[in-house]
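Page header: ASSEMBLY MODEL / two components / 918 residues total.
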Amino acid sequence: MNASEFRRRGKEMVDYVADYLEGIEGRPVYPDVEPGYLRPLIPTAAPQEPEAFEDIINDIEKIIMPGVTHWHSPYFFAYFPTASSYPAMLADMLCGAIGCIGFSWAASPACTELETVMMDWLGKMLQLPEAFLAGKAGEGGGVIQGSASEATLVALLAARTKVIRQLQAQSPELTQAAIMEKLVAYSSDQAHSSVERAGLIGGVKLKAIPSDGKFAMRASALQEALEQDKAAGLIPFFVVATLGTTSCCSFDNLLEVGPISELRVTHLSSKCTGKKEDMWLHIDAAYAGSAFICPEFRHLLNGVEFADSFNFNPHKWLLVNFDCSAMWVKKRTDLTGAFKLDPVYLKHSHQDSGLITDYRHWQIPLGRRFRSLKMWFVFRMYGVKGLQAYIRKGSNQLNEALLQRINSAKKIHLVPCHLRDKIVLRFAVCARTVESAHVQFAWEHIKELAGDVLRVEKE
Amino acid sequence: MNASEFRRRGKEMVDYVADYLEGIEGRPVYPDVEPGYLRPLIPTAAPQEPEAFEDIINDIEKIIMPGVTHWHSPYFFAYFPTASSYPAMLADMLCGAIGCIGFSWAASPACTELETVMMDWLGKMLQLPEAFLAGKAGEGGGVIQGSASEATLVALLAARTKVIRQLQAQSPELTQAAIMEKLVAYSSDQAHSSVERAGLIGGVKLKAIPSDGKFAMRASALQEALEQDKAAGLIPFFVVATLGTTSCCSFDNLLEVGPISELRVTHLSSKCTGKKEDMWLHIDAAYAGSAFICPEFRHLLNGVEFADSFNFNPHKWLLVNFDCSAMWVKKRTDLTGAFKLDPVYLKHSHQDSGLITDYRHWQIPLGRRFRSLKMWFVFRMYGVKGLQAYIRKGSNQLNEALLQRINSAKKIHLVPCHLRDKIVLRFAVCARTVESAHVQFAWEHIKELAGDVLRVEKE
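Prediction written out in full:
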């Protein structure tokens, strides 16, 4: 396929993509196939001679689509959302064309620098503490990981290296294995399975702290485990706090847990209080983190100032297509110190200048795509206000319109209230004679009118 | 941006991509920028209001392209090749539109099943032993990793889990840490830095075996290290053999190293020979592996039958855009057993049927894109013959044309020979009076004519 055929086929593919997304509501959200459905539909080996593009395109509807679970169908409510927007798709086309492997600054300066700046933009949207931003000469900064699993693993490995070096500096006779045997990491019993997996991969114990009645990790339960483990000679070194758990979107109590685990103040303050623990605090906000760009949700992130690393997934809920998992650290040397290997074939003249970022030291793989283009396109084409509106989705205007319809229809009667900036429709059960059937009737009626309001909004 | 604007902008982007790749030869391959060039060109924070698409597109040439190292320029000879083809780009557009996160079979059956079948297709192209193929009910199979670094790490972690379980089964009193302290992995001193990094992440020792005069790892050197380490009470458990090293594309001697490290025959044969070691053999052919699809290069892979896992990067040299790192194992349970965690929110009804593959157990991240679409498009649009021709690039016809030009020009005289299927131009130094200057003259003349032949071929 040469450039001129690509021009033709590429435009056909753009239309196919737009048709697919415009018509996705009409496709069954979950495929009706049994395991092994695909193999009999496909030859047992690759063709020797080239095939025509038409044949491949026709097979998409025949072979692929019947087996696709449509994550972007409005009827898809499983697992978690994954972001999809047209600007991100356009950026990904450009990313594919440039096709650079940005493992170091020199491997494509624009790839590294746009990522650093975009992570600063996003950090500012979240009002992250200054220490997490790269700025011109900051010690911290952000990196795009492929997934929150990798972010957690990278944080755990950096913390492991750090504690091993600290303890060996104090007691040079200690072997790495002797230390690792005693290391313990902690997370809520509601934490994502990838946290347990990071412990398995890192070869350290991970303890699940029982969450409270609201499925939140609290200081008291964590402190209890810490005391027990220290009494048993173990070495606590790493805590993951989850903001927005997978099962029920509960939030660990960061304002309680943060001060316990803050690492950097330990040596200063432990003498005074005896309470600080020498632990790395990682915050996993993969699922809920996008909401923090709205000022009214930002308080849920309070306590982030105690963390060493923070992660959330714009590829879940911020319109940046997978993969784009945003991770920040306060001290970039904690990551680069844990992983840095510098074979001569990857060296370049600027790398020791202190001016540049080589992202290969921040992540598990070596290679990396130009993923910040997606962020750039999305942030600019939506603007912060557009992104906030997407997170909020509903608006006061919609609620007002619904109330107006309800009261015009005169089948039921409601009055609204204001809760801070929100217009809320109050449904008070008032008359002595109200039965369950009346409430059911009212609810069906409200649902019908709400559907009308949303249809009008969409048109 | 709605679907209709995407149709328009998407088609403009297709043209931009085609223009970029058609004109890439005219761009400076390495950017003329200093570290920090980009930040002053970009606002310090994301815009509050949406911007126009034109503004973003214009900024690509103003801000991004001046900082791009053009990996697909024909003047790019740094690092290693990274694949780029139009069919793969079309497939990636479709992948972005479907946007599924295929961590389990149920999360999108087509995503999992096409990957399994494509890895079988590719395995057959390489003539991999049957044990590496999934087939309908095989114990082995392939998976697409993001990078060879991840493949090596996954193999090392699986081997680590396996040996720890084996030793604990024999001696239940042994702790994981006590075993890990003694584990040693091996690779050539020419192995890629990601192998050393996998050792660091996995918390095990990695020893570099001195390579021979051809930069190859040989059995004798490996055996020597093994004897020393075993005498010191260490436990060898993992060997990486490299086929095509990064620095000079040297090949470890697989036919020597393979039999030493074959794992599965150990318990059967160690009684007889006392020579087999209980080690996992991983083959890293990231760089050179694509060549094995040509029968004339396949012998370089001989010995793969001794390996537990094998990896190479179609995203380097097989026209499948990054990321697509192909990894096969003989026993899938070695991987899934090392990583399997099954939280209820990821369970599905088919998972215990034994019929399905949940790729999340085969890799470090949880999420994964529909990357097999790229393989499917590329394999079908090129055909095996087209891919082989791309690896070979030159052809007998080109050599014949060059010879004809040389002998027509009559400034020098050559005769050809056949080496098996290849037409080779023999350059024999014949006359008593030949000086270095004559050879230099001949070489310049041949280069000029060869350039003419290639220009004609291109037009």
